[in-house]
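Run folding on both entries below.
>entry_1
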Amino acid sequence: MAHISDRIHADEQLPVELSADGEHDFGDARRIGDVAKEFGVSLRTLRFYEDKGLLDPERVGSMRLYHRRDLSRLRLILLGRKVGFSLREVKQLMDLYDPSGTNLRQMKAVVERSTRQLGRLEKQRAELDSAISALQDVITTTREKLSALANSKPN
């Protein structure tokens, strides 16, 4: 079997082997297209996150390989976006991660920023509820006027 070894990080390697059918076997790593499909994002989105320093997939030639760490980071990015954090805020929170520590700073920042974001979302929800109520009133009133007009016309 042919082996290609490329550095993932300074202390870890990923062996790439050819399978029986001649295809590359990347172990637990996933190609960009597979990751895009699994997470429902475009290839362009993944490349954009990489350009912004949010993701750092391994490169084997021109191919990007995503490992568990990359997939975890992508989940956090997408969760952050879902709850309304900017990419800058997501990156700031992820940059606080210290694999050798307790991550106390990161956890405090997550609680503080999440609490602030929750307040913003609750305010938006109240505004949306008010807009929905106003639209329901418009629809009801307009339907009543339409019905009155239809009933007042001679046949």
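>entry_2
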Amino acid sequence: MLKLLFWLIVALVIGLFFAIRQANRLRAEQQDDSPQTRSLESVRCAHCGVFVPEDKAVRRDGQDFCSWEHAEAWHREQG
């Protein structure tokens, strides 16, 4: 009886190992199939020259800036 219980526990542990392994494999495949985030273009700040993602840039007077402060400073310098 003790041997049977031992082998039952061994089989259960092995089954659990393979189930977890399969679940991890499926999760990894699902992540690979997920739509990729599109890369954003970078634009250069007209005031300091730093590059920022296009969706984070501040646009004023046809120029791109890294912040509102630099947009204001550039506008003051332009007169």
